[in-house]
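Quick look at the format.
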Amino acid sequence: MSDAGARLEVVGGKAAGQSLFVTDELIIGRFVEGPGELGGDEEISRSHARLSVDASGLCAIEDLGSTNGTYVNGLRISAPQTLSEGDTIELGGTTVVVQELPKSAGPDVTAPRDVPPPEPPPVSQPPAAAPVAPSPEPTPASPPPAEPAPAEAAPAPTASPAAPSPPAPVASHAEPANEPVSSLVLNVHVDVEARQVLLTVGDSETLRLVFEAGRWQVATSQST
């Protein structure tokens, strides 16, 4: 990595193999004398782009309103673009690759010498123990209270004779035995187009329902 400036190498176009050194500023264009004319590339504008290196060592490229534009890594730029090593720049029919960038000036992180070690913090003294108050003398215990005399037991209540239970009702007649229930067959026939429903109960009676006036009504009931 260079300390003085940035170095870019032309890898495609009329100036292929040429190196571009940027220490402060380099203008690229057809009417520029020196390496900025890129070997007479007819596809670049008169003032196509500007390469610059600032005081902190950052290298950037800016398009100067060229006709064909300036591209960094395949993307056309519309504002100054900071460059990194390995970036590819396309201007007209020329391709340039960033090879070296200046070292950025960083803060001095060297530790100072002959610095005395910090003094240890003072050790705090433990607080003095508080005086212990003497315990009070025990007072004589008072005699236990006298137990109350037992109360006389109340006489137990006499049990009243139990009332006789009423006699169970006598059934007047025996309950009838469960008779078998015959099965019921219901047939339903729905006629959507005629808006009617036929209900047949078993084989004897048919009930016809018709949909009139917004509700279902019984039309006829006939036996079969």
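Next, a different chain entirely:
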Amino acid sequence: MAVDNLFERLLRNGERVVRLGHPARVMPELRSHTLDLLVEKHEDVRLSRKLVKDALALFRKAGKFTRAKPEPGARKEMRAEAKSLLADARRLEAQAVEHILDTADILCATTTGLDENVLGNRRFDLVVIDEACQSTEPGCWIAINRAERVVLAGDHCQLPPTVLSADAQREGYAISLFERLAKAHGSRILRRLDSQYRMHAAIMEFSSLEFYDAELVAHESVAGHRLTDLPNVIANPLTEWPIEFIDTAGASFDEETEPDGQSRLNSREADLIVLKMNELLASGVQAQQIGIITPYAAQARLLREKLSLSDLEIDTVDGFQGREKEAILISLVRSNDRGEIGFLSDLRRMNVAMTRARRKLLIVGDSATLSYHDFYARLIAFFESQSAYRTVWEEGLV
């Protein structure tokens, strides 16, 4: 999908660009620009198809039983001619592929979609690897080995590559090439894009302070936008304030372990999320404009049961990577007397979750549990400094 998004923009700008990869995995409206379908429409391939048809006819004729005895060697000659026609057909198809690739200025593909048999010995002036922080290092080298110059684009303060093997993680396989180079060379090779075009300035600020050396700037087109600026949305505290933290400490919003599983859930916190969701809907915000994020799959399942709206997206942090919504509600789940926060200790995932919101970010969590970790103590202090901290007691929810 990420490749298709780039591909679509390049086509829109009039670039000579070809998409590599199986057409079935490409968005339907873009398939006509894939290598496979461009080859199918090429005049050399149309001629190739005719040669194949002729060759098959010769094979059938050579193998057909007739009463009249054929001339000596006739069948052998027919088969030889048929093979020659097939060879010509293959040459024409290869020629069509070469012509399409040679006349394109840009090729778009996933790192694992670079077919050596198709590309041959081609090298490129520039290779740009987008979302490079989510690729394992070997995946990047497939493309890099063909490049004179390389640009890696991504954010090593967000999600790393998905590596399921614990042994591979211990050996460093989950560290992307981008992250390794950033640590090794720092500002010598890093260029930060400091203007962001998604979030209200207040939503952006904490992540900017914690992860980006306080260098992020909200573009004027988004710096002050709020839910109340959307059509048909009623102005009230929920829609006017861009950020909000609702603290459940002391209210017995206890976490539980999922029956028959290891994932965590918090049913009372889920009820609070449902309440706030319904308030947003009543204020005129559309379900498709809202996303609900939680670190725990069990909590996501519970919320889907409680909120059966087809247009509402409820998912884990990983499911929302690269996405955005006008309003994001986050359920942190963890609430215990031991200060155990599990998945929440992966701060990059929290950074991803908070930065999916455009106009409204609402977080629900237990400060007594979360504040054992310095990051969350600072997060709560930040919301307090912005007059955006509430408790379930203040909200009249207990």
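The chain has a mean pLDDT of 90.

See the schema section for token definitions.
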